[in-house]
Design brief:
The complex is a heterodimer.
Chain A (H helix, E strand, L loop, with lengths): L3 E9 L2 E8 L14 H5 L3 E3 L8 E3 L1 E2 L11 E2 L14 H5 L12 E7 L2 E3 L4 E2 L16 E3 H8 L20 E8 L4 H4 L8 H15 L4 E6 L9 H10 L3 E4 L2 E6 L6 E6 L5 E6 L1 E6 L1 E2 L2 H10 L24 E3 L9 H17 L27 E6 L11 H9 L4 E7 L5 H14 L3 E6 L2 H14 L7 E5 L1 H5 L6 H19 L9 E3 L4 E4 L3 H12 L4 E4 L21 H14 L3 E4 L3 E8 L2 E8 L2 E7 L1 E4 L3 E3 L13 E3 H10 L2 H4 L3 E8 L13 H15 L4 E6 L9 H9 L3 E4 L7 E4 L4 E7 L4 E7 L1 E6 L1 E3 L3 H7 L27 E3 L9 H19 L3 E3 L5 E3 L9 H5 L5 E5 L13 E5 L9 H5 L5 E3 L4 H11 L4
Parallel strand pairs in A: 8-19, 10-17, 11-12, 11-17, 12-13, 20-21, 20-22, 22-23, 25-26, 25-31, 26-27, 31-42, 33-40, 34-35, 34-40, 35-36
Antiparallel strand pairs in A: 1-2, 2-7, 3-4, 5-6, 9-18, 14-15, 15-16, 24-43, 28-29, 29-30, 32-41, 37-38, 38-39, 44-47, 45-46
Helix pairs in contact in A: 3-5, 5-6, 8-21, 10-11, 13-24, 14-15, 14-21, 18-19
Chain B lengths: L11 E6 L3 H10 L8 E6 L7 H9 L4 E7 L9 H7 L1 H11 L6 E6 L4 H18 L8 H6 L7
Parallel strand pairs in B: 1-2, 1-3, 3-4
Helix pairs in contact in B: 1-5, 2-4
The chains are: A alpha/beta, B alpha/beta.
The complex binds flavin-adenine dinucleotide (FAD), iron/sulfur cluster (2 copies) and FE2/S2 (inorganic) cluster (FES).
């Protein structure tokens, strides 16, 4: 339901009635094929808000090229007809009759068990404040606008040009924290968490486009706390992007209209004015007014900053049971975390729904498959006009005539829209009537439509692999409309290529594997515990394997989350629930030492103190956590008064005298993090130290507390803690990696020497207690497990997910998921969300009895393969194996026969084997050497 | 090297990875970008699946240029297929010199699925380069060019 707004929520968790208001689109989405004819004809120009007003669009438009559904809509505010005029250009232009000027608003009511809110954020509008010259100088723009400038599909096709005169830019600046971390002016104390990274990314792209560009970034702290971010930041500095730790206090006009002048104070206290041609304001995120309204209508609480209020232990649950929230709505965050929270809220919402699973879904039935193995190819070619999209560039009739002359082609037909329901029916009929056994569809792209035609084949009793598409729209008519003659010739080539390949297509039986509806969770820290409970609550038996003698992991050393929720009692509750849950078997003092199988049916061997047990499971969740770094600097271990953060917490809460009576405390940050050998940020330590610093100050205002830091990374809403600490008088002193503080041990106390940037001299701080904020380092044992399940590790020893942004809890290996510190350092609430997300992904496997496998797979040609095993090593998924055939009783003396086999469930169809084999012994369905070679020869008309 | 030949339209084959360049080519269509018609795309699932033998075959069958297009390094859907494609470059170079063809006739190019503009730009550029390079002596119509003294027929 697009263009729909929520009005009211009645009822309670498990039984909500939601009132919705559907706004009219004026375009029938079942009919619209997104051909864009309407746009060509629409006479009405409108400034485009998606391209941040740097560009214009029409009154009938597509919000952006990747919009889903990919359907046009009419903007009634600007449409001539909707505003009483006499236009109907789009209606005339639309080949499908999809325009509905009489569409109207509708009220809808739906009944649901749970609700997920994901309204996102809006970028801060710097215009409000009238500062930074925004709105005053054309060359001052927000990060959003600059992003569009960099986009190849944007107004300048990706070239960085000065808006003032369209000339290339030589010198530009980024100003960070615009609309973030600014309590005094705009009452926003939080950090938007993504702007440092997006600014660096934009700077790098801009630099790539123009190697001579000089870029300065003005920042307060550089917050690159995400996975691989620190290295990216380093790379940016190496490439010559300069970073200045200071706030720019004014943006002023310069002599040239193409430049603005920035005034700032350097770290050494020098006043500077410098001219730049483009100034990008790295604007932050905020909750918009409509979202506040949504919160009101759904009856959930917001934080003072305007984000959905959640607890660290239930990171996606709002204050109203049954209503969940995710993404930037629960606090500023980046894509990976938003994707994690989205899955997590699906899990949280589904727990309530697990007893009604499937009650509203149905599966499609297909007729039995016709055997075509022995038949000669009888190819049917269907050529689509796509309205006039194809037909207006290519002479479809000539194409059809040409297709008839091609080998094995017995039937050719053209259609207005090959994808329409009636054309599907017609194709089905032709397959039956004409006895077709291979189909070529010349139309749009297989990436969007192949699945549809595969279904049509299945519905007519043909194996779904017997169809091939010729892309004569996206890759022909649309891109060669200015050369119709050449396009026509090329269309013939494309059809000839598709026919040549089609003649060689082979039916492949569908493969599916049975799912063992049981999970194995390795690691019993917070991540493993939460994952086990959520899976068991949804009805799936779980084996939880923990190496230590008790559950809890690192969280056993924590006391409070940054939102002040008590950790020990939470861990206690989790442990008790796990112990009492009938579906969870806990294996303490145990590890997994062997594993085989694949998604749906793994078998792992658990080594227990009492002996080994084999466990069958359909999915595996790795939650083996991480460890606190043991420092080898700052005289750690040489004094009774130097602790790591975790040691300090323990003594602090136990009322140790050194802390109780101490008056001078020094925290040293980044101990072991952001070093050449561990070039990442540990993400938790800044918040952790600041929390301790606040507790110390609140305990006794006379204490002097210093935090020596490189960048303070209290990202997101945690920034509020940093503000509080400063308010309480905690003193923050910055140090650089090449000028680390020095610890000096004296008779009566300790001393820390740090460089004073303003006075340019060392500065000495007496200390009763020194706390080292130590890094979170990867668990070395994860490496062994990664080997067992064939999973990649990153260069720091953490597990490497399938896709950093889009698949943050998956691996390329199906059926294995990850959560918690094993992936990367993160605080408890993010660990919990990730565990819930892993469960959501795991349930997609466990909840089906059979899992159908993709049909693009390696296949061995036993006549050609001589088992040289060259392909075994190149297969990235371990899908290939050489098996010995058992000797026949009679064939004495003969050497045992060997055979190459493909384990279909592991094979992903990458075809590396095929590209390696010197004798065509193995090939990939639909892309075999022979098929590709036929296409090559057909393309060159070389038979 | 022969000068640019009026009337000569090079035949270019591109093995395009489904996840990046093939998608970028589709997107170029959605945006109605225009590029020369010389390029014929063969869809593959990964640049790592293209056997060097196929490239040889294409040249022997008269392609004036062959492109293998894959995802940017580090972004392959199958871990490192593009690295594997890259590792085959040496074999392909050797094959080109055996066939007596210029190295410029083959290129390995990385894309992301959003780089439609670049897809079109590369198509233009490669067509230009090959036009300047002239027809391959393995073309079926090579004798016509040989008659005009443009290339040496093999
Ligand atoms: C120094 C430090 C300070 C922190 N400070 C904070 C903070 O202030 N606030 C906050 O919110 N978060 C903090 N965290 C993070 C917090 O501890 C984690 O987010 C959370 O506890 C992670 O849980 P986990 O289950 O992923 O990993 P872990 O807690 O590490 O649990 C992993 C479990 O797996 C077990 N295991 C490991 N290998 C195997 C194996 N091969 N077989 C079986 N079992 C195995 C381990 O014994 C352990 O029990 C801190 C972490 C550290 C290290
Ligand atoms: S102290 Fe920790 S969180 Fe802060 S910057 Fe250093 S490594 Fe990152
Ligand atoms: S297609 Fe790829 S995954 Fe499948 S067997 Fe061949 S190399 Fe392995
Ligand atoms: S998936 Fe594109 S190159 Fe491998």
């Amino acid at each position: 339901m697009t263009l729909t707004e929520l009005e009211r929520v009645d009822g309670e968790a498990g039984n909500f009635t939601v009132s919705l208001r559907k706004h009219p689109r004026y375009v029938d989405i079942d009919k619209c094929i997104a051909c864009g004819r309407c746009v060509e004809k629409c006479p009405r120009q409108v400034r485009d808000e998606f391209n941040r007003y740097t560009d214009s669009r029409k009154a009938i438009y597509l919000k952006y090229p990747q919009a889903a559904p990919l359907k046009y809509q009419i903007d009634a505010r600007h449409c001539i007809r909707m505003r009483g005029g006499r236009c109907a250009e789009c209606e005339k232009a639309c080949p499908r009759g999809a325009i509905r000027f009489d569409d109207s608003e509708q009220q809808v009511e739906v009944k649901v068990g749970s609700i997920i809110l994901a309204p996102g954020f809006q970028p801060f509008d710097p215009f409000e404040l009238g500062a930074w010259g925004f709105g005053r100088f054309r060359n001052v723009m927000t990060g959003m606008e600059f992003e569009r400038l960099l986009a190849v599909s944007g107004p300048t096709s990706g070239n960085v040009l000065r808006p003032s005169d369209g000339k290339p830019v030589r010198k530009m600046a980024f100003l960070q924290c615009i609309g973030s971390r600014n309590y005094n002016q705009i009452h926003k104390s939080y950090c938007s968490a993504v702007c440092c990274m997006y600014a660096i990314k934009q700077a790098m792209i801009a630099l790539e486009n123009n190697k001579d560009l000089r870029i300065s970034v003005f920042y307060v702290d550089v917050r690159t706390h995400g996975k691989d971010f620190e290295r990216f930041y380093d790379k940016a500095r190496q490439k010559g992007i300069s970073f200045h730790r200071c706030r720019v206090h004014s943006v002023e006009p310069s002599e040239s209209a193409n430049e603005v002048c920035l005034r700032y104070m350097t770290e050494n206290g020098k006043q500077v004015s410098e001219n730049f041609e483009i100034v990008v304001l790295s604007v932050g995120m905020e909750t918009n007014f409509e979202t506040t309204l949504l919160a009101e209508r759904t009856g959930i609480e917001l934080t003072p900053e305007g984000f959905a209020s959640t607890s660290c232990f239930a990171p996606v649950a709002t204050s109203r049971p049954g209503i969940f929230a995710c993404g930037a709505f629960t606090g500023p965050k980046d894509i990976p975390l938003s994707v994690i929270e989205a899955s997590a809220s699906a899990t949280a919402a589904a727990v309530r729904l697990s007893d009604v699973r499937y009650s509203q879904s149905h599966t499609r039935q297909f007729p039995p498959e016709r055997k075509t193995g022995e038949e000669d190819p009888r190819i049917g070619v269907f050529i689509c006009k796509c309205g006039s999209n194809i037909a207006e560039v290519v002479r479809v009739r000539d194409l059809a005539r040409y297709a008839e002359t091609l080998p094995h082609v017995v039937f050719v037909e053209t259609s207005l829209f090959a994808c329409s329901q009636d054309s599907q029916e017609l194709i089905k009929k032709r397959i039956g009537d004409e006895g077709l056994n291979r189909i070529v569809i010349a139309s749009c792209t297989p990436r969007t439509h192949e699945q549809l035609f595969r279904e049509t084949l299945k519905a007519s009793g043909l194996n779904e692999c017997l169809v091939e598409m010729a892309n004569i729209r996206n890759q022909l008519a649309w891109v060669h409309s200015s050369e119709p003659e050449a396009a026509n010739a090329k269309a013939m080539d494309l059809i000839r290529m598709a026919v040549a390949k089609a003649a060689l297509l082979e039916p492949v039986p569908a493969v599916s594997v049975r799912i063992t509806p049981q999970a194995l969770v390795i690691g019993g820290g917070v991540a493993g515990m939460v994952a086990s409970l959520e899976l068991a609550d949804q009805g799936f038996p779980v084996h939880l394997v923990e190496k230590a003698a008790q559950l809890g992991g690192n969280a056993r050393h924590l006391f409070r989350t940054w939102k002040n929720d008590p950790v020990p009692s939470y861990i206690e509750t989790l442990s008790t629930r796990i112990r009492e849950h009938s579906l969870i078997s806990v294996h303490l003092k145990s590890t997994v030492f062997d594993a085989e199988g694949f998604v749906g049916s793994f078998r792992s061997v658990v080594q227990k103190p009492t002996g080994n047990v084999a466990v069958d499971h359909g999915v595996t969740i790795l939650a083996t956590g991480a460890q606190a770094f043991k420092p080898n600097e700052y005289d750690y271990g040489l004094s009774q008064n130097i602790f790591t953060s975790l040691e300090f917490d323990k003594l602090h809460s136990a009322g140790d005298e050194r802390i109780l009576n101490g008056l001078n405390f020094v925290f040293i940050q980044c101990v072991g993090s952001r070093e050449p050998e561990r070039n990442y940020c540990s993400r938790v330590c800044c918040t952790h130290s600041i929390q301790s610093a606040i507790a110390l100050k609140e305990g006794n205002r006379d204490r002097k507390v210093f935090v020596l830091y490189r960048d303070i990374r209290t990202y997101g809403l945690r920034e509020e803690l940093y503000r509080r600490a400063r308010e309480l008088g905690v003193i923050f002193i910055n140090y650089e990696a090449h000028q680390k503080p020095n610890v000096v041990m004296k008779e009566e106390n300790l001393e820390v020497i740090v460089w004073d940037h303003v006075l340019h001299e060392p500065f000495s701080i007496p200390a009763d207690v020194i706390v080292l904020a130590t890094a979170v380092v990867a668990n070395p044992e994860t490496k062994e497990l990664a080997k067992l399940y064939k999973l990649p590790l990153d260069m720091d020893g953490f597990l490497q997910e399938a896709h950093v942004k889009l698949r943050p809890v998956d691996f390329a290996t199906d059926g294995v998921f990850l959560a918690g510190l094993a992936h990367y350092p993160k605080p408890t609430e993010e660990t919990i969300a990730q565990a819930q997300a892993a469960v959501a992904r795991a349930v997609t496997v466990l909840s089906s009895r059979w899992i159908g496998l993709d049909l693009v797979k390696g296949r061995v040609d036993e006549n050609k393969c001589d088992c040289c095993a060259l392909c075994l090593d190149v297969c990235p998924y371990g899908a290939l194996a050489v098996e010995r055939e058992r000797l026949d009783a009679g064939a004495e003396g003969a050497a045992p026969k060997q055979k190459l086999v493909v384990r279909a469930a592991k094979c992903k169809g990458c075809g590396f084997c095929q590209a390696t084999c010197p004798k065509e012994g193995i090939s990939v369905t639909g892309f075999s050497y022979r098929q590709l070679s036929a296409q090559v020869r057909a393309a060159l008309d070389c038979g | 090297m022969s000068e640019w030949q009026p009337g000569f339209e090079p035949k270019i084959l591109a093995f395009a990875c489904n996840w990046c360049s093939y998608a970028a080519a589709d997107l170029a269509g959605t945006a109605r970008m225009q590029y020369p018609t010389n390029i014929r795309i063969i869809r593959v699932m990964c640049s790592g699946m293209v056997h060097p033998g196929l490239v040889t075959e294409a040249f022997q069958a008269g392609a004036d240029g062959v492109l293998v297009m894959g995802c940017h390094l580090g972004e392959c859907h199958y871990q490192d297929g593009n690295h594997k494609a890259k590792a085959r470059l040496a074999v392909i170079d050797e094959m080109l010199s055996l066939l007596g063809l210029e190295q410029e006739r083959f290129r390995l190019i990385w894309y992301s699925s959003a780089e439609s503009e670049r897809f079109a730009a590369v198509a233009r550029e490669v067509t230009d380069v090959l036009k300047k390079l002239g027809p391959s002596p393995y073309r079926r119509d090579a004798s016509e060019y040989a008659d005009k003294g443009i290339i040496q027929c093999l």
